[in-house]
Amino acid sequence: MLFRNTNRLTILVTLVALCCIVIMFFLGFWQLDRKQQKEARLAQIESRQDANPLYLSDVVNDPDAFVDFPLQITGELRDELFYIDNRLKNGVAGYEVLVPVITDYDMVMVNLGWVPGTGSRDELPRVLLPFTQQHLGRIYVPQDNTLINETNFNYGRFPVLMQQIDFTEIEQHLGRDVLPFTLRLDPSPDANFVRDWQVVVMAPERHLGYAIQWFGLGIAGLTVFLLTAIKTMQGRQD
After folding, report:
1. In the chain, which ranges are continuous DSSP H helix?
2. Would you say 121 and 85 are in contact if contact means Cβ atoms under 8 Å apart?
3. DSSP state for residue 218 in the 8-state scheme
4. Which of 25, 1, 71, 4 is nearest to 225 (CA)?
5. C-alpha span between 235 and 230 (Å, rounded)
6. Phi/psi of residue 77, each to 5°?
7. What pTM did the predictor assign?
8. Pairing of the two strands 70-74 and 134-140
9. Coil, strand or helix: which one is 113?
10. Are 73 and 49 in contact (CB under 8 A)?
11. Are 178 and 167 in contact (CB under 8 A)?
12. What are the start-end ranges of the H helices in 49-93?
């Protein structure tokens, strides 16, 4: 009975060890894949940096195909502010501020940029809207964070505090359709907002570093496993 239990324990330990080694190698390859994705995105941004500004008629049917391209729209900023919470700049907590602009192709949500918080989430910072009707920026399609499910049900009451850019919720507040992308305004010396847009949060080199770490752990785990297995087999032969 003791021999049988020992064999079962050995098999279980072996399976757990192999699973851990496979997971570590998988995470290493996943980090390499993320590195390639980031490099492709940075190359895309670079290639579209100096492109001529597009107009809504060019992109309205397929905004995803024109991410990072410059876009110029015309319209008046409406005084219906959306504050996107938990945005950090240099360790300072603040908000990104979005406002709708009425165009010939429904509303476009314009991201004015970042402003610091007041120190209390119960008091949103006051902002001054630009007076111009010409708005130039970059097309950006935000990704949903499935871990965030908080919803602001005070529809129609402004300003609106949100945890992420959710077009369905924005439409509920505005009572009309909005186009499924945002316009991140270009930096301006007279703007009251910070507009140093960070498109890629983690540099490709960081992903490479993580991949090397995971591969190193996998190789170390595999080495220990093989040495232990060889030693065990030699012990049984003796």
Report:
1. 2-48, 56-59, 167-174, 204-237
2. yes
3. H
4. 25
5. 9
6. -70, 125
7. 0.75
8. antiparallel
9. strand
10. no
11. yes
12. 56-59
